[in-house]
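Example 3.2
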Amino acid sequence: MTHLQVEELPVRKGVVDISEDPDLAYVITVNRYGKPNKTVGLIRHFGGVEGAVGSTVAHDHHNMMIVYRYSEAAQRVYEALVKCGGGISCSGKDQLLQTLELPVFGLMSATNCFDTAEQAEKMKKTLQSIGLDTLNPLLRIVTLGLTVIPEFKYSDLGLVDVLESKLLPIFPE
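Structure, written as tokens:
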């Protein structure tokens, strides 16, 4: 379950500055179906992402979601996922670390199950190495956009209040 909280954060050069708060990360959801929709917001308690993690495996909408601390890392993840047709990708602060290629609709592998399982295990370890220290870090980003489970989720249309079935402003005045 996700909760909503409003915080005041510093803005530097037109960007919300999270550099002093290691528990905050940016999150972007980009529409994968030819529409220009995208949402940029913030997430707290995602895990200590020292770089970026992105996925096209995002329940219900299967858009691309990237959680990141550094925009350059997010750009590397975005480009890797576009190039391979989808999957899960991870970048450290300075370099792309790994991409689990899932080119069939951005959800499924084109290789056999044994190779895919091996690559998934490697991706889990890579994600844990950048700070996603959970039992199954592959699922951490996948459920972030699941707009049918309470309480608040990101979609390419904005921040969704799941219980009220409405969009909320990400940066209220």
